[in-house]
Amino acid sequence: MLLNKYVDAKSGETLSLYSPHDESLVTDNIQVADQTDVEAAVVAARIAFKGEWSRFTAAQRTKVMMKFADLVDEHASEIAECEAKAMGQPINIATMVVGIVSAVFRYYAGWTDKLNGEQYPEQDGMYKIVQYDPIGVCAGIGAWNASPAFFAFKVAPAVAVGCTFIYKGSEKSPLGVLQFGELAKEAGFPPGVINIITGDGRAGSMLASHMDINKISFTGSVFAGKKVQEQAAKSNLKRVVLELGGKSPSLIFPDADMENALVHHSQNFLFNTGQACIAASRTFVHEDIAEKFIEQLKARFQQFTHTIGSPLDPKTFLGPLVDGKQFERVMQFLEIGKSEAELVTGGGRHGKSGWYIEPTIFLNPKDDARIYREEIFGPVITIRTFKTEEEAIELANDTSYGLSSCIFTSSASRALRIARQLDAGNVNINTWQTLSPNTPFGGYKQSGLGRECGKQGLMHYVEAKTITINMSV
Ligand code: NAD
């Protein structure tokens, strides 16, 4: 989508998408952007940034953003269907993800006239004003597990402050995001403000290393995120935000509400078939309640096997993994896990066709077990036991990641004491990680750099400018 029109890529190259449910062809016509296409998108975004878009008032930006949100809601079922077909996300979950898009656009639509800057009264003969300028032409690259939401987390704050955007979704789930191009045009965004390109890591890399892009926000693996940061540094030192992987801990204490903990570690852990960066896949349960907890969690995981089905069926809760490659990767982890830990339930393929995996629990992984250390990104949870609060905190923080974390206890003081000590961008007490438009989301350590959502998410799309006035002249 370039200058509000769908155009074929100049490369002449296309990608095919196959249904993860039954491996049937979804489309063989996903355009692959090359350097010429990226160049055209950057030029369009630069012209729009300096042109008509720069003359839009805050109220006008709010109006088009609100209209866009309404249009997304109107077309939610079509967009959700695109995700269900391309990456196997169950239709109810995909619809919920589309709801995040309109909520985030509405939230940031309210910010267009609220970034008021600061002023410092004359002290030393100088009067100072700090103003926030839009950073310029921005780019975004997304993962596949909630594509529409990643588009919103990046594009909405950028356009709220007057930036323009080039977005590349994942090559595994590009269809839902492509619908946004038509809706952005209908909402009244001028040509060049929101540009969408398709392609794989090569196109992402062209964006990361481009000399005329001022900022890039990336959602994906640590491996590719590091490459993006490297390319940004080697090119024009564009600003970088990274939203990367996780291997989040959850701590369950004997005074926790058992039913609540079980719901969160079954239904909510298995949400999106465990393909969630925020999934607390390292569970630590106090030894006094471990036996009961594990037995009941096993029963719930087995019950969830009955919710496996076609992504387009509204009764389905557990869909397939995104594609054959991800399926092979998770299957490999399951095999490795059998020699690294005790298999409690699951551990294999579900059915004979489609990329379905049984919900799986491993108990007592070795300290250096790959299933315990590496992000699996599937319906696979590991459980260890602990004796003391200190031990639980140490185990929780013993990871290179730091995205999310959960604490289950009825003691508020214990929860807050532990929250302070966890190295994670998000701590959830007696609940699971949820995303809200008004609070910052992101990771400590190798889970990322910077934050999305909330005011912090907005501030990544502006540069601070200090204006100093000599009052004696
Ligand atoms: P990935 O890193 O393979 O791909 C993500 C995106 O980066 C894709 O659009 C891909 O085309 C692009 N890409 C690949 N190589 C690139 C390169 N060298 N330069 C620029 N772009 C490149 O990740 P994935 O498999 O799509 O997604 C799964 C990962 O994403 C998991 O690690 C998961 O935890 C993480 N994730 C993080 C968040 C978060 O908000 N923290 C959210 C969702 C997913």
Beta strands, count: 18
Q: Provide the domain count.
A: 2
Number of helices: 15
* Rg calculated over all Cα atoms: 23 Å
- Proportion in helices: 25-40%
What is the average of the pLDDT values?
97
Task: Give every kind of bound small molecule, once each.
Answer: nicotinamide-adenine-dinucleotide
Active site: 243
Family: Belongs to the aldehyde dehydrogenase family.
Keywords: Oxidoreductase
GO molecular function: aldehyde dehydrogenase (NAD+) activity
Explain what this protein looks like in three dimensions:
With 473 residues, this protein is of the alpha/beta class. It has two domains: 14-245 and 447-468, Aldehyde Dehydrogenase, Chain A, domain 1 (3-Layer(aba) Sandwich), CATH 3.40.605; 249-432, 3-Layer(aba) Sandwich (Aldehyde Dehydrogenase, Chain A, domain 2), CATH 3.40.309. It contains 15 helices and 18 strands. The chain has helices at residues 35-50, 58-74, 76-87, 91-109, 147-160, 175-187, 201-208, 222-234, 258-268, 287-304, 324-340, 370-373, 389-397, 412-421, 454-459, and strands spanning 14-18, 25-31, 118-120, 126-134, 137-141, 164-168, 194-197, 215-219, 239-243, 249-252, 282-286, 342-345, 360-363, 380-386, 406-408, 428-429, 448-449, 462-470. The protein has a seven-stranded mixed β-sheet, sandwiched between helices. A hairpin with a 6-residue loop joins β1 (14-18) and β2. It is globular and about 75 Å long. The mean pLDDT is 97. Bound molecules: nicotinamide-adenine-dinucleotide. The site of nicotinamide-adenine-dinucleotide has 28 residues, from α7 and α8.
